[in-house]
Amino acid sequence: MTSSMRLLAGLLASASFATIAHAGEVSGNVHDAAGVRALQSASVRIVELDRSVETDRSGQYIFGDVPAGTYTLEARYVGAEVTTQSVTVPTTGRVSGNFDLAAIGGGDILVTGQTANMTSALSRQKAADGVVSVLTRDAIGQFPDQNVAESLRRLPGVNILNDQGEGRYVSVRGLDPELNGTSVNGVRLPAPESDVRSVALDVISSDTIQSIEVKKSFTPDMDGDFIGASIEVNTTSAFDSKKNRYSLSAEGSWNDYSGKVTPKGAFDFTQKLGDNFGIAGSVSYYKRKFETDNVETGGWNVDDSGNAWAESVEYRDYDVERTRINAALSADWRVSDTTKAYIRGNWAQFDDHEYRRRTTLDFGDFDGPSESTDSGATFDGSDERITVERDLKDRFERQRIRSVSIGSDTDTGVWKFNWMASYAKSTEKEDFSIDPTRFRARFKSGTVVDMDYANKYYPTYSVTEGADSFNDASEYEFNKTELTTLSNSQDEEWAVKADLARTFAGDKGDFTIQAGGKARWRKKSYDFNMTYYELADGADYTLADVLGKQTYRLVDMGPVSSKTGPKDFLLANPGDFVVNDFESGYNSAISDYSVREDIVAGYALARWDSATLRVIGGVRMEHTHNDLNGSLVTDNGDDTFTVDPQSYKRNYTNWLPSLTLRYSPQQNLVARLAGYKTVVRPKLSQMAPRNTINDDLELVVGNPQLKPYQAWNFDAGMEYYFSNNGALSVGGFYKSIKDYTYSLNSKEAGTYNGIAYEEITIPMNGDKAEIAGVEVSFSQVFSMLPAPFDGLLTQLNYTYTYARGSVFTDDGGVQIARRISLPNASRNTFNAVLGYEKGPISLRAAGTFRDKYLDEVGDSFETDRTVNQHFQLDLSAKYKLTDNIRLFADWVNVNNAKYFAYQNLAGAKRVLQYEEYGSTVKFGARMTF
Question: Which of the four pLDDT bands, split at 50, 70 and 90, describes residue 20?
């Protein structure tokens, strides 16, 4: 301790000595040679003092405490020629040193196209404190993909979880999306859905954003609420470019399953109103219609002959219309040479209208098939009844995410002070959704159904006896309608933060002391109400009254409902229905909850910067307070239920130390090493004290005592940047996680909070999990090749992840530990982009591979749900028609990649879910002026 204090005192003394001498300031801006784009993360160095800084997003930099004299300034940027100039620093005051950097080989590769995206991303990655992957748009507003999630799948260590064929949730380094934090312009986004913390990033259009940073390591000035990554989305600023810009795009989208063309349009701009004030904004609209063919099974068993059979098979025909509307507006003000102020707002709306026609073959009354083989089964109605259900879901769901922030950044070169206040709110709402209307028939003697399991992706069926009645719509009588009258999830957060730093300039580098604090006030709630309709006495209602046409391609589903018929029939014939008060009330009560989560954080860090070495060490404290509210809902067994309100309060504190080293012994080589602790709080919905128990004493509970995930993380890596625009990086990571959560199902009788039960399902904390892996990335522009091959470029990355943990399963009342792969952890992921960009032509082929992963944990290996490996190929082309007009076309999912989830049973993969989506073609034009 004594030697450490002496070292700190020595550094402060030497730094203070330098500040006593007569000193001035050096500041300036770095842009591309065409004067179009501000170059963020360009490195500017005072050669004689060996002091370096990086430019901010407006391309600005500043050195404070520079002794009077004449110096050489050197500016570097990936893909650009190294540029120097001489400046004379006065005894007091400021001198300017502006740079306009030319691309290696000339041209506008720093401004537009794939190469501009690559150079910008590599420059920011190189300059970063820790391990960061970056995506950026170019100077005319082009972004590689359609939404944030789709773009992120190109980065190393990133895996995208799809929904209906679209990238939606982001898994980093094989970890659950719940272990990421997501921000827009520094504002942590709450989640629209009621049961998650993670934000579905397909809600955010790429037309509104400037860059995405995936920060995989932690420093104390960051929120410590991630283990996978902190995903930080930044929208455009007026000072991102030197010139004003207006862009307009129009696009059509065609899905080969739906056969329909749907529109997309976007407008964005940056406009300076004088030298020191500017505004930037964007608005986009995208409507997409598509279809999905889906098969799901209700789980598999093995009969006495050792053959596998499915208790139920569902054929699902989805027709979906999704509409995305995004808007962003920001204002930036240079208050002075050292201070910038801003206000930024973002608004996103995602409408999802889903029609699902479903035919369910239910063999649950059978103990086993009437006959079976290793590839099929026969079910004879004379042995047990065969239940067939044909239903429709007509659901309209609207999500909204909005945020606003106001703040300022001050950098004098010696002092830095930043503050921000923000508000964010996310909602998800349904208010008149049929989920579902069901028609049912039960067949006995005279009906025989053969199931063919030879195709591992989906079983087919044939009705060998009784086909006429089986396919007669009038045989299917109304069973029920569940009408969601309200499903309202609300999640909002207020926050305020401030940071203060003091830099001491020394002979060999800069020493900085920094401290700050942040407060967050969050409230999340969910309110669900439904009405359960049954048929009134004397009423007659069958599937034949609302018969429609299927668009299913895998098998013949038989008769199906029309899309709007059940809703129209319900509204037109209210007297034909009665409300089941018990089902309506019970189902409306079991899901409701409200939770408050207040977090107060403070941190302190010290930082050493020289031309070769950067060291950041410190600690962050985060104190969490929860108010948890829910209900114990008891089914009394006589068509009555009781609701008892439940409330809990809890407090806990986490200390999060970190140490980060960045060593660059030469300009094109960077080594990184980091060790840090982070924490992820449990899902608010899991902690909510929502408890339900039925008359069989089966108890399902929330767990207010859930502990947060805690992880020790270690990163090490090496990056080599080629002189002609490219990089090779290799990195390793290790994470030791304790108190991760999983769902425990126990059939051992007991009591919970005074409630007696025979069976309990409850979220619990696990023991310990370990994640280790390697990331390798290669990027290169082949401008050194002879024409025409000098337009080639490539981006390749591969990640290997080992992620294992233990869960406990109930075995006759005994809890048995079982080792599993962590959910959503793919062992191997690989991304490859091959591009060509020369003259007016820009072409790109992008392939993404994701290994299989554990999706849901069962009570044994045989009941675990696994998602199969996935490879998707996308193609894109752009053509520069004039300086202001570009035509483009994209072919998404060229190979019609499928979704396949299965369980391992009886020596084979048994399908649990299979989906086909078809491919999508997009085409349009973009005008910039």
Answer: very low
Structure tokens at 849: 């591979």
Residue 19 pLDDT greater than 90, yes or no: no
Task: For residues 295 and 914, give the distance between their C-alpha atoms in angstroms, rounded to a whole number.
Answer: 5
Any idea which residue has 């209906």 for tokens? 164
On the question of pLDDT at 156 being above 80, the answer is yes
Name the amino acid, one letter, at 511: F
Residues 331, 358 contacting (CB under 8 angstroms): no
What are 60's two structure tokens? 């600005």
**Tens digit of each residue's pLDDT (9 = 90 or more) over 830-839:** 999 999 999 8
CA 90 to chain centre: 50
Contacts of 538 (CB under 8 A, 6+ apart): none
Q: What is the DSSP letter of 696?
A: T
Q: Is the pLDDT of residue 11 over 60?
A: no
Cβ within 8 Å of residue 162, ≥6 positions away: 168, 870, 899
Cα three-residue angle 882-887-888, rounded to 5 degrees: 150
Which residues are CB-neighbours of 117 under 8 A, at least 6 positions away? 135, 136, 137, 138, 142, 144
Nearest to 842 by CA among 889, 882, 797: 889
pTM: 0.89
Contact call for residues 462 and 421 (beta carbons, < 8 A): no
Per-residue pLDDT tens over the stretch 313-358: 999 999 999 999 999 999 999 999 899 999 999 999 999 999 999 9
Distances (CA, A) of 370 to 380, 386, 442, 445, 775: 6, 12, 17, 13, 52
Q: What are phi and psi of 758, to 5 degrees?
A: -100, -30
The answer to whether 770 touches 736, Cβ cutoff 8 Å, is yes
What are the pLDDT digits (tens) for 548-603? 998 999 999 999 999 999 999 999 999 999 999 999 999 999 899 999 999 999 99
* pLDDT for res 204: 78
Amino acid at 195: D
On whether the CB atoms of residues 483 and 530 are closer than 8 A, the answer is yes
- Is residue 177 helix, strand or coil? helix
The closest of 361, 553, 558, 552 to 451, measured between CA atoms, is: 361
Residue type, 675: G
* Per-residue confidence (pLDDT) for residue 109, from 0 to 100: 56
Cβ atoms 208, 328 nearer than 8 A: yes
Name the helix (H) or strand (E) containing 919: none
In this structure, are residues 516 and 276 in contact, taking their beta carbons and an 8 Å threshold?
no
| 453 alpha-carbon distance from chain centroid | 35
Q: Would you state the structure tokens that stand for residue 300, as one six-digit string?
A: 């598999």
State the pairing for strand pair 308-310/300-302.
Answer: antiparallel
- Between the alpha carbon of residue 907 and those of residues 298, 306, 459, 862, 912, the distances in Å are 19, 10, 17, 10, 15
